[in-house]
Amino acid sequence: MTTASKITLVRVAFIPAYMVLMYLSGGQANWWMWSGLAVFIVASLTDFVDGQIARKCNQVSDFGKFLDPLADKLLTIAAMAMFCEWGKFPAWALMIVLTREFAVTGLRLVAVGKGKVIAAGFSGKVKTASSMVALCFMMAFPHVVWLCWTVVGVIVVTTVYSGVEYFCQNWRCLLDE
């Protein structure tokens, strides 16, 4: 297993710790929430670090290509689900995110079945990075209503845009040829 993949596994391991801290916070801006935010930030930074190591040290692997986006999705969806539980992130927005993730994963599976690989697009990377940053703001200021709605807007817009872009660029994979 490569160093980059080990770092990605650390990101996955941070998710339960993050969830426990967030549960203990009860959705309030307290020590638990700040600790959860710190764990989320460190976990988010591992996304950048593992990618840099994989590219610079020639450690790009099939396992890493599978695990890295999965770890990103699990981390960001965990944060959205916590805020959804507290009524600060609407369920419809979470469903948009989940629908996009399942649809793009399904598209990638169809493409693999036809011997094609759909690489992560720039808009997908922007979606992940902007979601991570926006969720950090939401954790830092959970009671600022306009900020929470701005976070929801950023996440929904980047999610829909990147999902549409994946399908527009790869729709031929869905044709029976």
How would you describe what is shown here?
With 177 residues, the protein is mostly helical. 80% of the residues lie in helices and 0% in strands. It has helices at residues 3-25, 31-56, 62-85, 91-113, 122-140, 145-170. α1 (3-25) runs antiparallel to α2 (31-56), α2 runs antiparallel to α3 and α3 (62-85) runs parallel beside α5 (122-140). The longest helix is centred in the first third of the chain and has 26 residues, at 31-56. The radius of gyration is 17 Å and the shape is globular.
Record the SSE blueprint:
Elements (H helix, E strand, L loop, with lengths): L2 H23 L5 H26 L5 H24 L5 H23 L8 H19 L4 H26 L7
Instruction: State the end-to-end distance.
Output: 37 Å
Q: State the major sheet.
A: none
**Apparent shape:** globular
Give start-end ranges of low-pLDDT stretches: none
- N-to-C series of helices and strands: HHHHHH
The secondary-structure class comes to mainly alpha
> What is the residue-mean pLDDT, rounded to a whole number?
92
What is the strand content?
under 5%
Question: Rg to the nearest angstrom?
Answer: 17 Å
The total of helices stands at 6
Number of strands: 0
Percentage of helical residues? over 70%
